[in-house]
């Protein structure tokens, strides 16, 4: 347990240097108990755990924003973007117009520069952390804590308020479409053109429409809180300090504008977007599961109708449409998990009024 003087020292350090992420990774015990304080500009700060911090400006708005990163510990560019934003907020350099919750997902995986330690965290949301053997490892416990943080954050929002969640990632492999976003399955809800405009401002002009429930973080926020939520892929995985941040400048600028301007509503023409729907979700069922294309094949590579994409004992998976493209191929996932998505072009017709 921290003493009052220790807590005050941590608060002073955060306001002077803004080093929330480094303290969370190196001395998480500082945040074993909730810490709340107010910045000189009137912004309220609430830290509920290592890597979990929310900010509330003195004048409330009807927008509640969640920015998550590091759900996979080696996807460093979004972590660096969010870390810089948190530093600027804590030191008073960036003044917020809306409530914002920052979630740095998998801190131990960041420390070892790996996607995860024991289990892929982005398969543990929407209650999946408690299925089977339950919360029996650190990633399952953390997934539950992240869910609880979002539930608490959105809990103070009015039913008519706008709730946003951008879960920021980078992809394992190169992509023909460098930046893309997954729009979670909306059930009976309509798509939102304003959100596509914001994503385009981030440099994200390729959208994948998911057509089934999943256990991803963005689907959790979408289905449980009616948030506009997305899994946003901003580029390729690189080690800390080795990202060409010029390639992320549009995304960073748009995120800063989103949190600091009272109304940031960029627009986009649908003609400028590449929109796909998920056609096949291919899971790995057997140890001998194999992909029938090179390991360096980029995301969004298309295949001829009938071409063999993957196989395992008792099953073959082939392209069902001419030009059907592959996304997120990974033959090494755990048994029962998704090893490959295939996508085909589509259009969106049902938008919000």
Structure, described:
The protein is of the alpha/beta class and about 350 residues long. It folds into two domains: about 5-270, Zn peptidases (Aminopeptidase); about 280-345, Beta Barrel (OB fold (Dihydrolipoamide Acetyltransferase, E2P)). It has helices at about 5-15, 20-25, 75-90, 105-110, 140-155, 195-200, 215-225, 250-260, and strands at about 35-40, 45-50, 50-55, 65-70, 100-105, 160-170, 180-185, 205-210, 230-235, 275-285, 290, 300-305, 310, 315-320, 325, 340-345. The strands form two sheets. It has a 13-stranded mixed beta sheet with strand order 1-2-3-5-4-6-9-7-8-10-16-15-12, sandwiched between helices. α5 runs parallel beside α7 (about 215-225). The model has no long low-confidence stretch (mean pLDDT about 95).
List its salient traits.
alpha/beta; Aminopeptidase; OB fold (Dihydrolipoamide Acetyltransferase, E2P); three-stranded antiparallel β-sheet; 8 helices
In short:
With 353 residues, this protein is an alpha/beta fold. Helix content is 25%, strand content 26%. The protein has 2 domains: 4-271, Zn peptidases (Aminopeptidase); 279-345, OB fold (Dihydrolipoamide Acetyltransferase, E2P), CATH 2.40.50.
Number of helices: 8
The SSE string, one letter per element, is HHEEEEHEHHEEHEHEHEEEEEEE
CATH level-two architecture of the largest domain: 3-Layer(aba) Sandwich
Radius of gyration, rounded?
20 Å
CATH topology of the largest domain: Aminopeptidase
* CA distance, first residue to last residue: 51 Å
| Mean pLDDT value | 95
- Quickly name the level 1 CATH class of the largest domain: Alpha Beta
- Helix-residue proportion: 25-40%
**Globular, elongated, flat, extended or rod-shaped: what is the shape?**
globular
CATH superfamily of the largest domain: Zn peptidases
Structural category is alpha/beta
Q: How is the largest sheet built, in terms of strand order?
A: 1-2-3-5-4-6-9-7-8-10-16-15-12
The biggest beta sheet reads: 13 strands, mixed
Percentage of residues in strands? 25-35%
Q: Segments where pLDDT lies below 50 for 5+ residues?
A: none
């Amino acid at each position: 347990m921290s003493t009052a003087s220790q807590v005050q020292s941590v608060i002073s350090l955060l306001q002077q240097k803004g080093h929330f992420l480094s303290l969370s990774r190196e001395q998480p015990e500082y945040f074993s108990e909730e810490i709340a304080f107010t910045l000189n500009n009137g912004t309220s700060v609430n830290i509920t755990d290592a890597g979990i911090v929310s900010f509330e400006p003195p004048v409330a708005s009807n927008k509640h924003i969640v920015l998550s990163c590091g759900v996979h510990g080696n996807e460093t560019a979004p972590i660096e973007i969010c870390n810089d934003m948190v530093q600027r907020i804590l030191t008073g350099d960036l003044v917020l117009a809306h409530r914002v919750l920052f979630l740095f997902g998998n801190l131990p995986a960041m420390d070892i520069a790996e996607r995860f330690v024991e289990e892929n965290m982005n398969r543990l949301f929407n209650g999946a952390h408690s299925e089977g053997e339950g919360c029996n490892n650190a990633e399952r416990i953390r997934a539950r804590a992240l869910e609880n943080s979002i539930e608490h954050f959105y809990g103070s929002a009015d039913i008519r308020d706008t709730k946003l969640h951008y879960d920021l990632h980078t992809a394992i492999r190169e992509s023909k479409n460098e930046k893309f976003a997954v729009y979670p399955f909306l059930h009976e809800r309509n798509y939102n053109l304003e959100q596509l405009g914001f994503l385009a401002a981030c440099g994200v002009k390729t959208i994948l429409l998911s057509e089934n429930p999943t256990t991803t973080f963005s689907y959790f926020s979408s289905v449980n809180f009616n948030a506009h939520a997305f899994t946003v892929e901003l580029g390729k995985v690189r080690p800390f300090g080795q990202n060409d941040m010029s390639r992320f400048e549009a995304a960073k600028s748009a995120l800063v504008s989103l949190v600091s301007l009272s109304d940031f509503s960029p627009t986009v023409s649908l003609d400028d977007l590449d929109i796909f729907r998920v056609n096949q979700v291919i899971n790995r069922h057997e140890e001998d599961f194999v992909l029938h294309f090179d390991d360096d094949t980029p995301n969004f590579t298309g295949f001829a109708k009938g071409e063999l994409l993957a196989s395992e004992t008792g099953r073959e998976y082939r392209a069902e449409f001419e030009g059907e493209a592959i996304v997120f191929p990974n033959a090494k996932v755990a048994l029962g998990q998704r090893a490959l998505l295939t996508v085909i072009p589509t259009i969106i017709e049902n938008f919000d009024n």
